[in-house]
């Protein structure tokens, strides 16, 4: 049922989409929906931004880490620094990216082209995916003048559902990426690097998959539905 619903939605978006790049992007995801999650091509991602408002703030960096058949080929992990208008300001205290780091950064137009090409035919994975997707969708809309939906597996929501099955309430801070990783015995990484956080997210998903009963039977559509 999950597969049929998501397939219908993607087909409808592809049909209504006027931009061929986005049309192809949607169509590339359709055959993945029925695949076991353990076999599907995935792409863990993370962004660093100047703030949390996609209407006002800007993307500073994008980290992408592929996941293939339950493994992470680190040699193909990539990060792009992105040019911005103005200064990073006080946000540098969070992510550590300074204005002089962006001198050789790519334009947002080049970053979005790279992002679409790298994630084409792969299911996105992110921790608190709606935030990252809203920033990406805002820039894609500005550049291509076409609204786009980015289906993504949200490791935060997967963990939230898992915890609520065990406890009636969730402690504040327990859904942060580091706290989630700690419950699975995963190592501590220095936070607030897009590439490191994308890797941390990808590893968390693999740990979540290993902890799921009957994970070999879970399809991409099942997990997209669970993380919505």
| Major β-sheet profile | 5 strands, mixed
Q: Which regions are unreliable across 5 or more consecutive residues at pLDDT < 50? A: none
How helix-rich are the residues, as a percent range? 40-55%
Strand arrangement within the widest β-sheet reads 3-2-1-4-5
**Separate helix tally:** 9
Portion of residues in beta strands equals 5-15%
Number of strands: 5
List the helices and strands and how they pair.
Blueprint: H1 2-16, H2 20-29, E1 42-49, E2 59-67, E3 78-81, H3 92-95, H4 108-119, E4 123-126, H5 129-144, E5 152-154, H6 155-166, H7 177-183, H8 194-211, H9 220-226
Parallel strand pairs: 1-4, 4-5
Antiparallel strand pairs: 1-2, 2-3
Helix pairs in contact: 1-2, 7-8
Quickly list its features:
alpha/beta; 9 helices; 44% helix; globular
Offer a quick outline of the entry.
The protein has about 230 residues and is α/β, with parallel strands linked by helices.
Structure notes:
This protein is of the alpha/beta class and 228 residues long. Helix content is 44%, strand content 12%. The protein contains 9 helices and 5 strands; from the N terminus they run ααβββααβαβαααα. The chain has helices spanning 2-16, 20-29, 92-95, 108-119, 129-144, 155-166, 177-183, 194-211, 220-226, and strands at 42-49, 59-67, 78-81, 123-126, 152-154. The chain has a 5-stranded mixed sheet with strand order 3-2-1-4-5. Helix 5 links the parallel strand 4 (123-126) and strand 5. The protein is globular. The mean pLDDT is 94.
């Amino acid at each position: 049922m999950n597969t049929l619903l998501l397939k219908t939605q993607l087909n409808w978006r592809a049909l209504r989409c006027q931009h061929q790049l986005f049309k192809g992007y949607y169509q590339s995801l359709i055959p993945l929906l029925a695949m076991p999650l353990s076999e599907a091509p995935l792409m863990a991602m993370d962004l660093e931004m100047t703030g949390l408002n996609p209407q006002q703030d800007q993307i500073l960096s994008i980290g992408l880490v592929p996941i293939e058949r339950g493994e992470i080929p680190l040699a193909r992990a990539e990060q792009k620094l992105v040019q911005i208008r103005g200064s990073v300001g006080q946000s540098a205290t969070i992510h550590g990216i300074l204005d002089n780091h962006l001198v050789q950064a790519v334009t947002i137009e080049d970053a979005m082209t790279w992002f679409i090409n790298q994630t084409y035919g792969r299911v996105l994975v992110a921790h608190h995916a709606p935030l990252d997707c809203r920033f990406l969708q805002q820039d894609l809309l500005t550049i291509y003048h076409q609204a786009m939906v980015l289906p993504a597996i949200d490791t935060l929501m997967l963990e939230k559902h898992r915890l609520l099955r065990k406890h009636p309430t969730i402690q504040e801070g327990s859904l942060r990426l580091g706290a989630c990783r700690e419950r699975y015995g995963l190592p501590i990484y220095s936070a607030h690097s897009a590439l490191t956080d994308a890797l941390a997210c990808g590893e968390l998903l693999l740990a979540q998959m290993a902890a799921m009963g009957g994970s070999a039977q879970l399809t991409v559509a099942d997990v997209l539905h669970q993380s919505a």
